[in-house]
Design goal:
By secondary structure, the chain is an alpha/beta fold. Helices cover 41% and strands 19% of the residues. It has a single domain, classed as Rossmann fold (3-Layer(aba) Sandwich). It has 10 helices and 14 strands. The structure holds NADPH dihydro-nicotinamide-adenine-dinucleotide phosphate.
């Protein structure tokens, strides 16, 4: 089996390089042009013609799209490019997957919802994004679904990886220097590890390959829920318990309204994962176990 992975160096893409390798040959690309045994390939999602050509050259059995325009605030002003990368490039992948009878694996977000209420969102809930990033991700989902290709779209939330920047690392950096931190307490979700996303992708894909009727949208996040404020407290408490010396004395809860950003954020990022767990017979670990593992990994302990 041949798998084309796009966005190989993002948080999720990096973990997918490892996890997908047990399923078959992985042709992994970032946005650069590379020479390969197949010829010249280009994984730049902003260049739709080159992307289409690359898929045709590789002719994969599975396309896994881990690339996306993820700068949520910047997307508000960078509208055309974020739409091209998150929506139009997904459409190109879907059209080519259909022509090849290949599977398309794609990642989306709880930001397709408006964040109202406090009930976890199910896949059939009405969508209504509150920012442009969410609108581009929704458009991408809809284009894939409309194409008729076999697809798994995983909507997830609050993704972190041990590699690169993440919320926990930022909190620890600030906690080393500052006595008081102010962290948003009215947005609730589940921090979800890129490694968990990659591992579930492999298991789900394995089942889907023999079961085309399970094509569809699935919510995928770690179990449990937490606010950014309680998440920050958890990270700081754990780090202290490991002997780290931190200057922070107070972690102050603040409302979203007190921290204006160019893009609005939904308050309710809870995702109901029942459909995924039932369809693929999977257990999703609680968010604390993955975060603890990541903290141990970045501390080198
Ligand atoms: P990252 O921002 O870590 O990775 C995104 C990757 O996309 C980067 O490697 C980036 O490359 C690449 N990329 C951006 N523009 C292009 C382009 N024009 N052509 C090719 N590659 C490009 O994101 P995550 O791994 O966290 O996200 C994976 C998926 O999960 C995305 O679909 C995202 O929308 C979704 N998601 C993420 C959440 C989060 O909290 N991060 C929450 C919910 C959903 P480069 O480094 O060169 O810019």
């Amino acid at each position: 089996m041949k798998i084309l992975l796009l966005g190989k160096n993002g948080q999720v893409g990096w973990e997918l390089q490892r996890a997908l390798s047990v399923l078959g040959e992985v042709v992994a690309l970032d946005r650069n042009v590379v020479d390969s045994p197949y010829g010249q390939l280009c994984g730049d999602l902003a260049d739709l013609d080159a992307l289409r050509q690359t898929i045709r050259i590789v002719s994969p059995d599975v396309i896994v799209n881990a690339a996306a325009y993820t700068a949520v605030d910047k997307a508000e002003t960078d509208r055309e490019l974020s739409h091209r990368i998150n929506a139009l490039a997904s459409q190109v992948m879907a059209e080519e997957a259909l022509a090849l009878n290949a599977w398309l694996i794609h990642y989306s977000t709880d930001y397709v919802f408006d964040g109202s209420g406090n009930r976890p969102w199910v896949e059939t809930d009405a969508v209504s994004p509150v920012n442009h990033y969410g609108a581009t991700k929704l458009a991408g989902e809809q284009m894939i679904q409309a194409s008729g290709c076999k697809h798994l779209i995983f909507r997830t939330s609050w993704v972190y990886g041990a590699r690169g920047n993440n919320f926990a690392k930022t909190m620890l950096r600030l906690a080393r220097d500052r006595q008081t931190l102010s962290v948003i307490s009215d947005q609730v979700g589940a921090p979800t590890g890129a490694d968990l996303l990659a591992d579930v992708t492999v298991l789900a894909l394995q089942k889907a390959l023999n079961c085309p009727q399970i094509s569809g949208v699935y919510h995928l996040a770690a179990a449990g829920e937490v606010s950014w404020h309680a998440y920050a407290r958890h990270v700081i408490d754990f780090s202290r318990s490991q002997g780290d010396v931190l200057a922070v004395e107070t972690v102050e809860p603040i409302d979203t309204a007190a921290y204006p950003t160019p893009a609005r954020r939904p308050l309710n990022s809870r995702l109901d994962t029942q459909k995924l767990r039932d369809t693929f017979s999977l257990h999703l670990p609680d968010w604390q176990s993955g975060v603890t593992r990541m903290l141990m990994e970045i501390s080198g302990k």
